[in-house]
Amino acid sequence: MPQQNDQAAQSDFQDPRWIRLRPSRIALTLLGAGVLLAVAATIWSEPQREFSPVWLIALGALAGGMLVLEVRRQLLREPSAVVAFYLQRLDLDPLTGEPRGLAGTQLGLRLRLRDGRTIEDAAIVSGAFVLPIMTTVPYRLPGDRWWRRSRILTLWADSLEREAFRQVRVQLKWR
User: Fold this and answer.
1) Cα(150)–Cα(144) distance, integer angstroms
2) How confident is the model at residue 5 (pLDDT cuts 50, 70, 90)?
3) Dihedral angle, C-alpha 60, 66, 71, 76, nearest 10 °
4) d(CA 172, CA 75)
5) Cα–Cα distance for residue pair 99/138, rounded to 1 Å
6) How many angstroms separate the CA atoms of 7 and 166, rounded?
7) Helix (H) or strand (E) segment spanning residue 108
8) Consecutive H or E run containing 84
């Protein structure tokens, strides 16, 4: 059964629109540096005040646990991690390519998760942050509750091909 899922995923990746993601060394470096700085700032922030060894152990365990969870997510090891995506116009019929109606162009997102699921109609919402090194893509899923304003797909410059990253930034900036 897993081989069938892998074969289906490989055949679906033959579509040239899919942009594969890979782990970002930039994100991992910033994550590690942030944890080290937080621990160092906590330990050396007030030298005249003594910290209890219990607090230091608890702080180290908490920071280490958070680091392990985030590194696992950044390395795309979580079943719900996005491993591929592409941008699409939601106002076009996917089969014919013809406009569905007179509504304005809305940019959407199609996501492939690590566990093999595909999310078809994620709508990109306003608030995309576009920089040459990092881009965030806020999106909503059709079944999201009213209180969940958006989910965010963070794209780092080293997590996808250079030309694909440029095209995503252009589409988000000029949509």
Assistant:
1) 8
2) very low
3) 160
4) 25
5) 24
6) 29
7) strand 107-113
8) strand 82-89
Which among 75, 47, 62 is positioned nearest to 156, based on CA atoms? 75
Residue showing tokens 């795309």:
76
Rounded Cα distance between 156 and 115, Å, is 22
- Write the Ramachandran bin of 24: left for phi over 0, alpha for psi from -120 to 50, otherwise beta: beta
Angle between the 25-44 and 53-74 helix axes, to the nearest 10 degrees? 170
Residue 59 has a pLDDT of 74
Range with lowest mean pLDDT among 30-39, 79-88, 95-104, 129-138: 95-104
Please tell me the total number of residues recorded for the chain in this structure. 175
Q: Give domain limits for the chain.
A: 17-175
